[in-house]
Amino acid sequence: MTTAAGFSLVGKRILVTGGTRGIGAAISAQLARSGAEVIAGFVRDDAAAETFASKLSGEGKSIELCRADLSSDAGQQRVREVLSGRAVSGLVHCAATGVHRSIEQLTLRQWDFTFALNLRAFFELVTSLLPQLGAGSTIVAVSSQGAVQAVPYYSAIGATKGGLEAFCRHLAVELAPRDIRVNVLSPGSVETDAWNAFPDRDVRLKEAISRSPRGRLTSVNEVALAAHFLCSDASAGLNGHTLVVDGGERIRA
Predict the structure, then answer these.
(1) What is each CA distance from 19 to 65, 142, 208, in whole angstroms?
(2) How far is CA 100 from CA 97, 110, 139, 189, 195, in A?
(3) Using CA atoms, how far apart are residues 177 and 110, in angstroms rounded to an integer?
(4) Which residues does residue 253 pair with via DSSP β-bridges, in sequence order?
(5) Phi, psi (5° rounding) for residue 200?
(6) Which residues contact 202 (CB under 8 A, 6 or more apart)?
(7) Is 191 exposed, middle or buried (0-12, 13-18, 19+ CB in 10 A)?
(8) Which residues contact 198 (CB under 8 A, 6 or more apart)?
(9) CB neighbour list of residue 44: distance below 8 Å, 6 or more residues apart
(10) Predicted pLDDT of residue 103
(11) Statement: the pTM of the whole predicted model exceeds 0.85
């Protein structure tokens, strides 16, 4: 196998949840431009999703939208309907939600809906897609620094990300005999609109940039390239691995 062939995604059909905004959109675009047939999941802002898909379609890339709230039974059923009878080569779980609050302010409802999308939905997707995931398929879960380190106002989301990483390690072992690889992609501080959800946004941004040896945040394209690698045959030796893409930020954390 040549180096170029190892990175090719031609002939692969990959579902990217949360695939029309932020990191998910960058991953969807990178995979489609590398030859994959991408199904990009989303739950709101139809106009933005259609614009995103139209741009890639205009480039001659294969992109399909799937509007589904993965935290609901109806949303999971919608994904099954869209993928019914079709082989699937990969799943990249980018969809995530949560609130940035102190533990005193966090409610049980907020805790439950954070787990419903970030962790339970991933479990449901994996188990429902297993019959369609053939040998050589890949599963990638997008985690975060909060999975392994305490981040202010991040307890609910961090707990789901920690659970996501633990679940993926177990999946990696259980699915290896089927030649299905499972890995985790853990970005550092990335340039997205998600920063606007933090009550201390400006302070946190300044601190993140100061920790980075490069003096800047990680770009969504850098994360997307790593996702491409994990979805390709070039990463055939990686299984149960957490790939950190932060430009060295965590060295100083």
Answers:
(1) 9, 12, 25
(2) 10, 10, 27, 15, 10
(3) 37
(4) none
(5) -115, 45
(6) none
(7) middle
(8) 100, 153, 204
(9) none
(10) 95
(11) yes
Q: Which two tokens stand for residue 81?
A: 């309907």
Tens-place pLDDT, residues 116-132: 999 999 999 999 999 99
Sign of the Cα torsion 8, 246, 238, 116 reads negative
| Cα-based distances in Å from 189 to 29, 50, 72, 128 | 20, 27, 29, 32
The single-letter code of the amino acid at 163 is G
The answer to whether 112 and 97 are in contact (CB under 8 A) is no
- Strand pairing partners for 91? 15, 139
Q: Which residues contact 160 (CB under 8 A, 6 or more apart)?
A: 96, 98, 114, 115, 118, 119
Question: Do residues 65 and 44 lie in contact, with contact meaning Cβ atoms separated by under 8 Å?
Answer: no
Q: In angstroms, how far is the first alpha carbon of the chain from the final one?
A: 39
Cα separations (Å) of 10 from 1, 20, 171?
Answer: 14, 21, 25
- Average pLDDT value for residue range 194-217: 81
Q: 3-251: which CATH topology?
A: Rossmann fold (3.40.50)
Amino acid sitting at position 165: E
Residue whose tokens read 């005193």: 104
- Helix spans in 116-216 (H): 121-129, 155-175, 201-211
| Side chain identity, residue 198 | F
Contact (CB, 8 A) for 148 and 184: no
Can you give the pLDDT at residue 4?
78
